[in-house]
Amino acid sequence: MDISEKIELHDCPICGGAGILEEEDMGFYVACLDCGSYTGTVGYKNEDGKLTAAEKSAMLWNTGKVINSAPGE
Q: 3-state class of 28 per DSSP?
């Protein structure tokens, strides 16, 4: 089973769009497919920490801890 299937993501806290869990360079972040808001990357050092990093990224997203680079922000 893919990690992203185990993680529940709420709608984007900025625009209400869909979020997607992304993996990059031994870390995870969540990004909005509509407005481009995103969380910081949560890294992991080995396979054992992979799920925990994904869950922490989702928690940041689901609690509204996102970065948005829209004009005026």
A: strand
- Please indicate whether residue 9 or residue 68 has the higher confidence score (pLDDT): 9
Neighbours of 64 (CB within 10 A): 12
Assess contact for 58 and 10: CB atoms under 8 A. no
Rounded Cα–Cα distance for residues 28 and 72 (Å): 27
Q: What is the mean pLDDT of residues 25-34?
A: 96
Q: Is the pTM of this model over 0.85?
A: yes
Q: Give the angle 36-38-39 at the CA atoms, nearest 5°.
A: 180
Query: How far apart are the C-alpha atoms of 43 and 53, rounded to whole Å?
Result: 6
Which DSSP state fits 10?
P
